[in-house]
Write a structure and sequence with these properties.
Blueprint: H1 6-9, H2 48-61, H3 66-81, H4 92-98, H5 110-113, H6 118-131, H7 136-161, H8 164-170, H9 174-187, H10 192-195, H11 201-220, H12 226-241, H13 250-262, H14 266-293, H15 295-300, H16 311-330, H17 347-370, H18 372-385, H19 406-429, H20 433-459, H21 465-475, H22 480-492, H23 496-509, H24 514-524, H25 529-542, H26 547-559, H27 563-576, H28 581-591, H29 596-609, H30 614-626, H31 630-643, H32 648-663
Helix pairs in contact: 3-7, 3-9, 3-20, 7-9, 7-11, 9-19, 9-20, 11-12, 12-14, 13-14, 13-18, 16-17, 17-18, 18-19, 19-20, 21-22, 22-23, 23-24, 24-25, 25-26, 26-27, 26-28, 27-28, 28-29, 29-30, 30-31, 31-32
């Protein structure tokens, strides 16, 4: 509206009615020059020219319809993330999904009892039950969740801009602003970690339910089926609690939203929605109970571990992290999955970002009192980040998926800011409102196309574990963890030279990394056994109670004929971890020649602990056969081949034993001797 001041539209200090908070102009009524105050007004029929102009305005305003906007948002989401469908699972997605037995079955519901995020893991279990390790449906599920969240955000923004307090200023462009803000949020490269990285369905699913709480609440304030919309809000909050804990800030933000955009006073907030908020508060107590119950698991995952980082150190480091989040929101170049953000310990790393973020927090507090709508946007950004970017210490200070919902505030601020700029330029240059809306939509579509290109490029980083970690190593060449994971990826692909090279680099950067020493030694056993022994001893000097390393070292010593030392380390492994089948297998293999009866007992114990242990069946069969127990040996070899069909040694030994059984003699051939594994 010409001559409007934005402050008039966002100035509600809690003393005015909703109607009083409608946008104001400097002159509330514009009087035509031929009519003065006090003169009687008469109604005149509109001219054909006026009718034509109004029709044109209506046509211009309806160029972007709501169904078209929804269809375009869906299409944009599909285009931005369609190249993720063929990607494998990387990093946590493999450990928490592909090798997690609780996800591999719907019943009994281990996914419900074993995690503080049961609903997300339930969706993993459903995916596994329906599709197994066929991965494109997993990615499609993530994409569907993200698009649904984008459409929900679109509905929230549009309906908020059409509320009484904002309608006069933004009602005519509510659809365009909601569309452009949602579009930017939907295709932004910062969202790749929450969409392309399968495990971070945790974040996107929580984000969807977070947004649904707001959407259902808004719909419950007017229109039919208000009660059902409240039920939808409560149900969404409950499911969100089962998705990820960050949703705990939703009730606080919802009360704030209610006061700014819906209710006339705090009394109205309590009178109209008090029981609803009380119910949400009760669910918050359930969330608190879940967190307390799983507190040891959180600490095991690097959360609330004060020995790693203190709350003060974490709080002083987060302004720099938030500043980087904002930079990537505005200029998404240089994204890195695992940058290993360092703890801020110098004035140079603490003071500048602290001043920047402190100023933004102060501006948010000022706006909350003087410009409530803008204050709410700032509150959304900082409150949603609060669980991961305040004083609660987390081992990893920085992860891009934490911006999944805060990015919405940035997108809305950008859309409204550009609209206000275009309105000012339009008034200066005399551009009509219809043309301004067209320009506004065009500018944001071009921006969205650019962001989509960056997003699709970022998606290719997830094309394989080796590409994924190569990207991290390229951007953070001093990150030992990245070299370790890259080496592990090359090892899985059979590229042993590259794996050894990267394990060595990991050890150079972090000489106290037990796993790097152990894995490097495992690869060097066949080619450089002396260097392998050095790394085994280094690993055991750091972690002397690691049973797996003792077992691996025993294998190297046995291959060198140092049997006494090998047995000593195998016994240590068995003492440290008596319930690990591999340790019994290793001990049995060492004793198979010298003490076969004891070896057979260890083989049998390994199979008690792990019945589907193909190697134990194979070596037990060999030892039994050497002792003349042909029939039982055949049974175990058949079981080994059932578990691992493509096993030439087992096939050969079974053929020998079957021939011996048919001949009724031991024959001259004998099965291959067992070897320590």
């Amino acid at each position: 509206m010409p001559g409007s001041s934005i402050s008039g539209y966002f100035n509600d200090r809690g003393r005015k009615t909703a109607e009083a908070c409608l946008p104001r102009t400097r002159n509330s009524v514009k009087i035509p020059s031929r009519q003065r105050s006090g003169q009687r007004q008469t109604k005149t029929a509109p001219s054909s020219q006026t009718v034509g102009a109004n029709a044109s305005a209506r046509h211009a305003a309806s160029t972007l319809s709501q169904p078209l906007a929804v269809a375009f948002l869906i299409l944009a989401g599909l285009v931005a993330f369609s190249n993720t469908l063929g990607n494998p699972m990387v990093f946590d997605s493999r450990g928490f999904i592909l090798t997690n037995s609780h996800v591999h079955r719907l019943w009994p519901p281990g996914w419900f009892w074993q995690t503080p995020r049961p609903f997300t893991f339930f969706t993993f279990a459903v995916n596994y039950a329906l599709h197994g390790e066929i991965l494109w449906p997993w990615h499609l599920t993530n994409l569907a969740i993200h698009i649904a969240a984008g459409l929900t955000l679109f509905g929230i923004i549009r309906r908020t801009l059409l509320c009484k307090r904002l309608k006069q200023r933004y009602g005519a462009v509510a659809l365009e602003i909601a569309f452009t803000a949602s579009l930017l949020w939907l295709v932004h490269p910062l969202q790749t970690e929450s969409v392309t990285f399968v495990y971070q369905r945790l974040e996107s699913l929580m984000g969807l339910f977070f947004l649904l709480v707001f959407y259902c609440f808004i719909r419950a304030q007017a229109g039919p089926r208000r009660g059902w919309w409240y039920v939808g809000a409560v149900g969404s909050f409950l499911l969100g609690v089962g998705a990820k804990e960050v949703i705990g800030v939703a009730p606080v933000l919802l009360v704030w939203y209610d006061r700014v955009f819906v209710s006339r006073s705090w009394k109205d907030v309590l009178r109209n929605n008090g029981p609803f908020y009380g119910l949400l508060g009760g669910i918050l107590f359930v969330l608190a109970g879940i967190v307390l119950h799983f507190l040891p698991a959180y600490r095991g995952g690097g959360i609330l571990r004060y020995e790693d980082i203190s709350p003060m150190e974490y709080a002083l480091s987060q302004p720099g992290v938030i500043a980087e989040y904002l930079r990537l929101s505005l200029w998404p170049q240089g994204q890195c999955f695992d940058c290993g953000w360092p703890v801020a310990s110098t004035a140079e790393r603490i003071v500048p970002p602290l001043l920047l973020i402190g100023s933004l927090l102060g501006l948010t507090a000022w706006a909350a009192a003087r410009r409530p709508a803008w204050g709410f946007l700032g509150g959304w950004f900082f409150l949603v980040l609060a669980p991961t970017s305040s004083v609660i210490p987390i081992k990893d200070l920085y992860y891009e998926h934490r911006m999944y919902l805060p990015l919405a505030a940035v997108a809305v601020a950008a859309a409204i800011g550009v609209y206000e700029l275009m309105a000012w330029i339009g008034r200066v240059l005399g551009i009509s409102s219809a043309h301004r809306r067209t320009i506004l939509t065009t500018v944001f579509i071009l921006a969205a196309l650019s962001l989509t290109g960056v997003t699709r490029s970022r998606n290719t980083v997830y094309a394989s574990p080796a590409i994924f970690w190569s990207d991290v190593v390229q951007k953070v060449p001093t990150r030992a963890k990245a070299y370790y994971n890259l080496a592990h990826a090359w090892e899985e692909e059979g590229q042993l030279r590259e794996a050894i090279e990267n394990y060595r680099r990991a050890v150079e950067l972090d000489a106290n990394d037990t796993d790097s020493h152990n894995n490097l030694a495992n690869l060097l056993c066949q080619v450089l056994p002396q260097e392998a022994e050095i790394h085994y001893r280094a690993a055991l000097s750091i972690s002397p109670r690691r049973a797996d390393i003792h077992g691996n070292f025993a294998g190297l010593l046995a291959a060198q004929g140092r049997m006494d030392e090998a047995v000593k380390h195998a016994e240590t492994a068995l003492r440290l971890a008596p319930n690990v089948a591999r340790n019994h297998l290793n001990m049995a293999n060492l004793l198979a020649q010298s003490r076969p009866a004891v070896a057979i007992e260890h083989y049998r114990q390994a199979l008690v602990l792990q019945p589907a242990f193909a190697e134990a069946h194979f070596h037990l069969a060999n030892t039994l056969a050497l002792g003349g127990q042909i029939q039982e040996a055949i049974v175990h070899l058949r079981e080994a081949l059932r578990l691992q069909a493509d096993w030439p040694e087992a096939q050969k030994n079974l053929a020998i034993l079957l021939r011996m059984q048919a001949d009724g003699t031991r024959g001259n051939d004998s099965p291959q001797q067992p070897a320590i594994r």
